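This follows on from our talk about sequence and fold. Please put the record directly below this note.
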Amino acid sequence: MTDDTRLRATVPTVAELSDKGAIVLVLAHFGRPKGVPSPEFSLAQVVKPYEAVLGRPVRYVDWEGDAAAVATLRPGDIAVLENTRFFGGEEKNDAAVVDRFAALGDLYVNDAFSAAHRAHASTEGLAHRLPAFAGRAMEAELDALEKALGRPEHPVAAVVGGAKVSTKLAVLKHLVGRVDHLIIGGGMANTFLAARGVDVGKSLCEHDLTGTAEEILDAADAAGCTVHLPYDVVVAREFRANPPVRTVNVHEVAADEMILDVGPAAVEALGDVLKNCRTLVWNGPLGAFETAPFDTATVALAKTAAALTKDGSLVSVAGGGDTVAALNHAGVADDFTFVSTAGGAFLEWMEGRELPGVAALTQ
C-alpha cells in the first residue's frame, strides 16, 4: 500500500461511529485473490498504516474464528476484518457469504463509492440484510455528483480526455444530452478530428470509430451541445520526454507526426468557455500528460478551473485515476470543489448508469 488516500477517506465515518460507542468492523477488499486466501493480499498489512491514519488502535480479525474475536471487542473498538475477496462468493453476491458478514454486525454503513458499481456481498448484498446507511465519504461523493450532473447549475461543461474513444463511448453519448459544452481532449480527440476530415498523421486514432464519432457530433448538434475539439495542437515525430516539437493548426500535421497535446490558442479559448460556465465535470487529461512537455494543456486548463472555483463562480467535480494524477501534478486537486478517487464507479455514473451499491442504500 503506497497511497493512503482511501484509508484517509474512511476516517470521518469510522472515527464518528467509534466516538459514539459503536464497535466498528471494517470490511474491505484488496487486489484480486479470486477466492483464495494469500499473505500477499491479506489486510493484516494495512492495520499499522490504518492506525497511523486514524490515530487510534486497530485490531485485525482473521476469518478463522471471526465471530469469537468480534465477541471480545468493546464499545468504541475498531477492527479490520480480513479481505472479503478471500471468499469466492463475495464477488458473486452469494447469499451464504452475505449471511456470514451480516451475522457479525447490527447495522451496515457503506462508505465505498469507488466499489458502488459492483453488486458484491459486501457492497450490495449486506444492504438488504441489515439497516443500511451511507457513510460520510459516500454522502459527500453523492452530494457532489448530484451538483455536477444530477441537478447542476447551467451552463455545464464536461472535459473528457484519455487515449481511446472506445472506452468512453457510453460517457460521450450520455453527456451530449446533459451538458452545454463538451470538451474532447487526449488521443480520443484525434478520432473526432479524423471524423471531420482532418489528416492526423501518425497520431493515436481509432479510424474504425470515425462513424461513431460523427453520430456523437450529430447527437450533440441535435441537443444544442457545443463540442470543442482542438484547432491548434502540439506535435512530435516521436513520443518521448522533451523531443523536438511544433505547435501547428490541426490541418498542418505532417504524415510522420503525432498529436500529443492541445495547443495554447485552443487552451486559452477553452479557458474562456469555462469562464462562462457554472458547473464543470472532468474525466481524463487533454494530452499525454505523464510525459513533458505534453502536460502543458492539462495543467493550464486545470489551473483556470481551479481559479474559477476559488472565485466561487464554478462548481468543479473531477474523477478517475488519470484525472486525479493530472490534477495533483498541476497542484490544484485541493482547489476543485470535489475530486473523486473512484475510477470505474465514476465512469459508470458519467454514463448515467444506476450503481448497485448506491441503489441498495436508497431502497
User: Anything to note?
Assistant: The first helix runs from residue 5 to 9. The two ends are 34 Å apart (CA to CA). Residues 142-350 form a domain with the Rossmann fold fold (CATH 3.40.50.1260).
